[in-house]
């Protein structure tokens, strides 16, 4: 589907109507330079094409967009793959992560090219924090029970994928996404960030209020802790697919240095 600039402007207005929390602290309160580059990173059970709907909208707005193919092997390797793409950008760059890749954004976001961070229903650990321990402070999301391991390789069962990961997408669309899900290595889950870019850079967060993969209250906790500018989207974990207008609008706001 193609989008005109007028269509995108209307989408931006719609996105602005989403509940917006303006509380900020430290890095989130800093002023970022305007950016023309956006680097997107996908999480578990997905690949770079999961950003397709958002990419189209950002390109229509005149931004240079790259979607990283996260190797899903170890955290250092995943961070390195993002850093290589970030290093290729000319000028300020907004770094965006969905789900697990919030870990990558938190670490790779320290790169000097990165001007702002956007988390989409994503993990947002502090430096050295045990994310699993943090998550245990909140109810266990239903999707966790659907993770299947074949040796060290993990994936999400079809039932859990359709119900708990992509619950607000048409079933036919969700089944296509399930068919192409990328398996992840168990070692990926044990990684910890050594630094937290959100402590020094402007941060934005999109909470999925109907999320069954990361508890929505955990998302709210992380967003508030980092002082992020926050929107709440009535969506499943895959808000980037089911609500691309709102997600693209938040990224565009970060790119404008707001």
Keywords summarizing the entry:
258 residues, three-stranded antiparallel beta sheet, globular, disordered N terminus
Secondary structure elements and pairings:
Elements: H1 5-16, E1 20-21, E2 37-41, H2 52-60, E3 64-68, H3 75-87, E4 93-98, H4 102-108, E5 114-120, H5 131-135, E6 147-150, E7 153-156, H6 158-165, H7 171-179, E8 184-185, E9 203-208, H8 216-225, E10 229-233, H9 239-242, H10 244-255
Parallel strand pairs: 2-3, 2-4, 4-5, 5-9, 9-10
Antiparallel strand pairs: 1-10, 6-7, 7-8
Helix pairs in contact: 1-10, 2-10, 3-4
Description:
The protein is an alpha/beta fold. The protein is 34% helix and 18% strand. The protein contains ten helices and ten strands. The strands form two sheets. The chain has a seven-stranded mixed sheet, sandwiched between helices. The chain has a three-stranded antiparallel sheet with strand order 6-7-8. Strand 6 (147-150) and strand 7 form a beta hairpin. Helix 1 (5-16) crosses helix 10 and helix 2 crosses helix 10 (244-255). The longest helix is centred in the first third of the chain and has 13 residues, at 75-87. It starts with a helix and ends with a helix.
């Amino acid at each position: 589907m193609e989008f005109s600039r007028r269509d995108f402007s209307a989408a931006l207005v719609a996105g602005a109507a989403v509940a917006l929390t303006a509380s900020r602290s430290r890095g989130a309160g800093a002023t970022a330079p305007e950016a023309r580059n956006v680097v997107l990173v996908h999480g578990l059970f997905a690949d770079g094409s999961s950003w397709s709907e958002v990419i189209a909208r950002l390109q229509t707005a005149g931004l240079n967009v790259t979607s990283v193919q996260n190797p899903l092997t170890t955290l250092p390797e995943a961070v390195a793959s993002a850093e290589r793409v970030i290093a290729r950008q000319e000028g300020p760059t907004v770094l965006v992560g969905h789900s697990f890749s919030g870990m990558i954004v938190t670490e790779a976001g320290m790169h000097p090219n990165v001007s702002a961070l956007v988390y989409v229903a994503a993990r947002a650990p502090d430096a050295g924090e045990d994310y699993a321990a943090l998550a245990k402070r909140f109810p266990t999301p239903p999707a966790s029970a659907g993770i299947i391991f074949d040796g060290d390789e993990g994936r999400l069962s079809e039932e859990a994928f359709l119900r708990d990961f992509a619950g607000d997408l048409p079933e036919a669309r969700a089944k296509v996404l399930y068919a192409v899900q990328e398996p992840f290595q168990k070692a990926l889950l044990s990684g910890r960030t050594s630094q937290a870019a959100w402590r020094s850079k402007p941060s934005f967060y999109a909470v999925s209020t109907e999320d069954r993969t990361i508890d929505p209250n955990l998302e709210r906790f992380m967003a508030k802790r980092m002082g992020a500018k926050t929107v709440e989207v009535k969506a499943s974990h895959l808000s980037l697919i089911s609500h691309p207008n709102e997600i693209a609008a938040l990224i565009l706001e970060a790119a404008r240095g707001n």
